[in-house]
Amino acid sequence: MSNPARRIQCSATIDVSGHRASRPPLVIRKLLCIVSVLVFALYLAGCNQGPDSPRGFSLPEGSAEAGKQVFVELQCTSCHKVAQVELPAPEIALDMLIVLGGQRASHMTYGELVTSIINPSHKFIRGHSREAVQKEGVSKMPLYNDVMTVSQLINLVTFLQQQYEVLPYQTTYYPYF
């Protein structure tokens, strides 16, 4: 039989320096556990797929070549240039061209392109003066919702999405001294 006086209670941990480190009281551990569960529950609640979510929304595949034709037919070249794509000169050229496509730090999603076309006042491009792209908070881009067919929209978005290139992530260099 073992001697009860020789039993060692192992309720403490040893830190890196070899000293005995006490565990946080039970109340604090329970509180941390409850807070962790609440944070996780809030995280899951933020992923709620309500009636306004894009879940289930998907357009069929489009044709980039047909989208290029739509871009020209709807005279998008009057205000826009597509990076590294040769397009015919516009019939009416404005003073400012907004460049679409090219290199970006993040993906230009299908949803962002669709929204930019059907609701151009939703978000304004950076890098241009406010007066150049909007008037009284409304985009100067005309609404094409009653002019463009769904097929034209699908093809146009397919064409534009292929023109974006995501830049590789640049890490920060920290020299060693």
CATH-defined topology of the largest domain: Cytochrome Bc1 Complex, Chain D, domain 2
Structural class assignment = alpha/beta
Number of helices: 5
> Can you say what the CATH homologous superfamily of the largest domain is?
Cytochrome c-like domain
Largest sheet: 2 strands, antiparallel
The total of beta strands comes to 8
| Overall tally of domains | 2
Q: What is the N-to-C succession of helices and strands? A: EEHHEEEHHEEHE
SSE topology:
Layout: E1 13-14, E2 20-21, H1 26-46, H2 64-73, E3 80-82, E4 98-100, E5 102-104, H3 110-118, H4 130-133, E6 134-135, E7 138-139, H5 150-161, E8 164-166
Parallel strand pairs: 3-4, 5-8
Antiparallel strand pairs: 1-2, 6-7
Helix pairs in contact: 2-5, 3-5
What this model shows, in words?
- With 177 residues, the chain is of the alpha/beta class.
- It folds into two domains: 11-46, no CATH class; 64-166, Cytochrome c-like domain (Cytochrome Bc1 Complex, Chain D, domain 2).
- The protein is 32% helix and 11% strand.
- It has five helices and eight strands.
- The strands form four sheets. A two-stranded antiparallel sheet has the order 1-2. Strands 3-4 form a two-stranded parallel ribbon.
- α2 (64-73) packs across α5.
- The protein is elongated, with a radius of gyration of 29 Å.
Provide a quick synopsis of the model.
This protein has 177 residues and is an alpha/beta fold. It is built from five helices and eight strands. It folds into two domains: 36 residues, no CATH class; 103 residues, Orthogonal Bundle (Cytochrome Bc1 Complex, Chain D, domain 2).
